[in-house]
Specification:
Rossmann fold; 8 helices
């Protein structure tokens, strides 16, 4: 009988184990569990204390670094804990820990900035139980109150009239398909006082410049101040405004209607259909889960300016089942470089949204665009023609101001008329 040494037996056992197929365990995002989950955090720096606890900051609480609703509790073993309720955070949330201020945000062990965190997936077996999974995390160090810390745009406070909430959403179109961005959701006066009331919603492109002036823009729409004053004065019905930030370098892809294969704009492949599909698949359901939104096209509008107005018009034409109204300021209606004519697309559309607002300035002039030209007034003639094409099939309003240029100041000045058209009080 052959006898094997223990080391040989161990080697054989390891060889057999290595030859066995590895079966990957199915996992789920902990944020998706209806029973919620528990997070336990070890502060290796020992900087946290009862008087300076650890806070959780994410898009779910508008990246507030000292939100009292998201403060962790100390445990008897020296660690910190927070219990998340099911559906509280949304999908695949990004987050960071702080000591109550971005001056005291977590870092790596060397004191260097870290990327936003994501919760690790948990076994799918938790879907069949009420048990809350426990996720253990470690914080090597916190920044020690440095004024040199530069707050990233997604963390900067929003100075707006009324209430603006950040709501994190994943994805986009074209090269932005794998991105994360924060929606900016403006809530009307009285929202918190009427928990049983739902509101119509206006989805707006270029969300960065709706409620405050970003560094990259010459101005803002002042949508918050204008809407708040008009609602409070009884001039319009209350509504929720959702600012969808553009994707930066991918803005051209997302905001240009889909064209035949091989057609590019400034080297980018137009992905307008994909963008509208993302709005329907990710953005709108995310907003509807988080806020009291009236659903259906009769309660849903889409808007924007320039290329944002173009994609808003495209969204209304291709998905009138989703969007019952369009707010298109200074839309790029004719792009000769790719053979795009929105008037032709309107004429061939099977259905139109019942309400379409169009705005244009007589002094708009963008050299190289081939469309916005103050001298020829091509953009003005185009929008007037479009108005006439729409008039037989939908309620349309056109606002042209001769002195208006192509900028946020003009769109802000024309905004009250657009909101009156969309949200005039019902009889």
């Amino acid at each position: 009988m052959l006898k094997l040494h223990k080391s040989a037996l161990l080697a054989v056992a390891c060889l057999i184990a290595a030859c066995r197929p590895v079966i990957a365990q199915k996992t789920v995002r902990p944020e998706s569990l209806p029973q919620g989950f528990v997070v336990i955090v070890e502060d290796q720096s020992k900087m946290a204390s009862a008087s300076r606890p650890i806070y959780f900051a994410s898009g779910a609480n508008s990246w507030n670094p000292g939100d009292p609703d998201y403060v962790l509790s100390p445990r008897s073993d020296g660690r910190w804990q927070y219990v998340f309720k099911g559906g509280e955070l949304g999908e695949n949330v990004e987050f960071k820990f702080t000591l109550g201020s971005w001056k005291y945000v977590e870092t790596d062990a060397e004191g260097q900035d870290i990327s936003n965190r994501h919760f690790p997936p948990v076994p799918a077996s938790y879907l069949n139980t009420d048990e809350k999974p426990v996720i253990e995390l470690t914080i090597p160090k916190f920044r020690e109150g440095s004024d040199k810390y530069v707050i990233a745009p997604e963390y900067r406070p929003i100075h707006a009239a009324g209430t603006v909430k950040r709501l994190q959403v994943a994805g986009g179109a074209g090269s932005a398909a794998g991105a994360m961005r924060d929606l900016l959701v403006w809530l009307p006066p009285g929202y918190a006082d009427h928990p049983d009331r739902a509101y119509p919603v206006l989805y707006m492109m270029d969300g960065q410049n709706l409620f405050q002036k970003p560094p990259s823009a010459p101005g803002e729409w002042h949508l918050d101040e204008t809407a708040q004053a008009m609602i409070s004065g009884g001039l319009i019905e209350p509504f929720i405004a959702v600012g969808i930030p553009n994707a930066g370098a991918a803005r051209t892809e997302e905001y240009c209607p889909t064209m035949p294969e091989g057609v590019t704009l400034f080297g980018k492949t137009p992905a307008g259909d994909e963008f509208v599909a993302w709005l329907a698949r990710e953005v709108m359901p995310r907003v509807e889960r988080a806020f009291r939104v009236r659903t259906g096209p009769e309660h849903t509008a889409v808007g924007g300016s320039s290329a944002g107005g173009l994609i808003a018009l495209h969204a209304g034409l291709t998905r009138p089942d989703l969007f019952g109204a369009v707010l298109a300021e200074s839309p790029a209606l004719e792009l000769d470089m790719i053979g795009l004519s929105m008037t032709d697309r309107v004429q061939s559309a099977q259905a139109l949204p019942p309400k379409i607002y169009l705005g244009m300035g007589g002094a708009e002039n963008l050299p190289g665009s081939g469309f916005y030209d103050k001298a020829s007034q091509r953009h003005v003639h185009a929008v007037e023609h479009l108005r006439d094409v729409i008039a037989d099939r939908a309620d349309v309003m056109l606002s042209i101001v001769d002195r208006h240029e192509h900028n946020e100041h003009a769109w802000a000045e024309r905004l009250p008329g657009a909101l009156m058209f969309l949200y005039a009080p019902s009889e």
